[in-house]
């Protein structure tokens, strides 16, 4: 892959800081016949599209895009994090959920974030104790080994070239790098990689990451062993030992990807396939759709107070169940079948009053903050195999810690575990047992890679970043397409809301809903809170009339792109 003027112009032009009204003018989807990649970062999307053009399948393109994102979108694309990949073969005969979520090291305990008996949020979220054993290299390799068609080296090489030769920094990347400097400052390797002698990197400059390139070469040449053993593992262990972290080479060697059975539901005749626990996304989306199916949403209209009230009340109940029941199924009994059953949805629906908002009980459950900084990509190939892949470092740029000599950022994913046993407070901590830390355990997640089919044929592949808002963003995108008959781009452009039970309020995107609608929601008893943008959904819809692929790249993130042929 040649880094030409085309990439410079692409990176700069796509990232212009346009006002929302301008950026969202026109909602025609990107249309492709033979394959499509939709990603939060344009250069990585082009890498995946090139793989499809050369005859690679959806898994090949997803792997290549994900490795490229580890270079071009370091806020969330990663080698040092983890996530989930959902795969559906063209005929639906195979659907597999690859869980490459990070795991707690062998020395982890539920009390590890207490200092002198008191909870220390810095230890929990901003220290080497917050780092989980990374899963991304193992997860991508396993999916490729079972379904890929092109050579492994072909999929890793573009990322190596981007790291070695460099790529032009977009306006958006420059902005996030500048904001992250205070978090990089304690770590010399982070400052060396992501600043110019301590000064912010400006848009248009070429960012080279030679140490990351060398790590990628080891992964290319040795597969997962190039990360979990040998030099890379040694460098990770050295960094942990130098700063009180827990991960060692035995933890790295012991890491395994979990292959899980996806959760399934139906919505108005469509099959919905989602990620099972430890992701809460699949269960929550199917449970929410089950409740909403009892209402005529099309008649109510997408921006109406009547629809938004029913939606918020549904998600209030879904998120309460999420907090109470969902965790790593290898460590806790999760009542999945009950939570996604239609009988249970009917009982929840009966508790919703159409004339008044209910109130969440702040004395029951709450949960710690889950970062917005994930990234999602959707891929469909010419045979209509589909991949929905969401992965993350947790916070933007994860822990902020670049492994010296290895060039990649470590996650702070263990911050998704509950703070400590019995530590449940009204300010947002929860200490109930299901999501407490334990050796080898995977923390609860909201990541929601989702695939939708109808009559045995692929219909949608989608997902989004955004912490707990991921669930609401993904679910509303499905409703926008199925109920409100929007195309892929219209569905991701439309305004979004978020309700997560606690805090008890509807969070809505500014300038997306009429003052009358907001006033009616207040009259129903909802507390409202305005936000900027929610999520960055990346969706592919198969047009049932033509069979063509319609891509919707979420322009809330100006670097997003749908690329195909």
Features:
7-stranded antiparallel β-sheet; alpha+beta; 21 helices; 565 residues; disordered N terminus
Task: Write a structural description.
The chain is an alpha+beta fold and 565 residues long. 37% of the residues lie in helices and 16% in strands. It is built from 21 helices and 21 strands. The strands form 5 sheets. A 7-stranded antiparallel beta sheet has the order 1-20-19-15-14-11-10. A 7-stranded antiparallel beta sheet has the order 9-4-3-13-12-2-21, covered by helices on one side. Strand 17, helix 21 and strand 18 (528-531) form a beta-alpha-beta unit. Helix 3 (42-53) packs antiparallel against helix 4 (58-72), helix 4 (58-72) runs antiparallel to helix 6 (136-147) and helix 14 crosses helix 18. It is globular and about 60 Å long. The protein starts with a helix and ends with a strand.
Nutshell version of this structure?
With 565 residues, this protein is of the alpha+beta class.
**What's the N-to-C terminus distance?**
17 Å
Radius of gyration: 22 Å
Number of helices: 21
Helix content: 25-40%
Category from helices, strands and their pairing: alpha+beta
* Assembly status: single chain
Poorly predicted spans: 1-25
User: So what's the overall shape?
Assistant: globular
Q: Which strand order spans the largest sheet, edge to edge or round the barrel?
A: 1-20-19-15-14-11-10
The main β sheet shows up as: 7 strands, antiparallel
Strand content: 15-25%
> Count of DSSP E strands?
21
Overall pLDDT metric: 92
